[in-house]
Amino acid sequence: MKRLATFALCATLLTGGAALAQAPIVRQAPPPPPDQTQAPASPDQQQAQPAYPQQYPQQSQPQYPQGQYPQSGAPQSQYPPQQGQYPPQAQYPQQGQPQYPQQAPEQGPPPAPLPPQRLDQIVQRIALYPDPLLAQILTAATFYDQIPEAAGWAQQHSYLTGDALSGAIAADNLPWDPSVLALLPFPSVLDMMARDPQWTGTLGNAVLVQRNDVMDAVQRQRRAAQSYGYLAPNAYDNVVDNGGYVEIQPVNPAYLYVPVYNPGVVFFAPRPGFFVGGAVVFGPRVFLSPGFATFGWFGAGFGWGGHAILIDHRPWGRTYWNRGVYVHPYAHPFVHGGARFEGHAFDHGGYHGHDYHR
How many domains is the chain partitioned into structurally? Predict the structure, then answer.
């Protein structure tokens, strides 16, 4: 019996195996290509073939987020300012000569004298300057038509000092009056005068027509500033009372400092608790080398009691009536040798073309 059962089981297995061996293998056809017009695939289908969004816009039509970047042709000012961004180039001072307004010399009869209150206002911005610088400013203001061009030259050559600057002045054969040439070491002063031609012309005419009144106005303003504590001796200038007249003399005549102050403050009583010591500050030191003796620097000042402006130790006598012919008697007058000539290259490193260097 056991043999019979084993035989039957083997026969069954052989019959089934033959049937499996003879069955054909059915191969599944590949899926057809996807139809481009079909609806988007389901999330399961997208996982097999992900469709990423386009990451870069077309070059011809930038797809910037709305409101973050200006459209093409929008003004530059619409860009948000960035930290540390340099200002536009137009905000920097130009390297060439500044464009100052021009003013023609006064013609016709002299202008009417100004009242004391008006003269006080005019002289306030320079009343606390040291006497030598103030004397040169008053005389140069009478040549107010020369100030704009001189201011431009001074700005262009502000990198020169001392003998290099006096050498450049001589080499360029500048055509202006010596009183104007004397201010070339002070670009900030000439710039102030050139930017306000009305003030400069009014001051110059007042000096020509009513010099005594101008000097009296200076003394009134100095006494006011001194009484309120704003004008006092310091490391740069000595402030002395000479026979009732307040003089401001540099500690060293070869080194001058331009005071900087607010006329609306220093000539009026300070409010309680106001620190008057910081109301007047001083600009950089200006060195007057021996070459500037030609312009009367080491004899410039005032004879306050006699209402005299002294240039090169000599009273300056130009008035409105002799202004066309007056020549000041300098000890060593500056001689113009022909047409003006720029004899050196403009450079920030020194004075080229001659043996003058910083």
Answer: 1
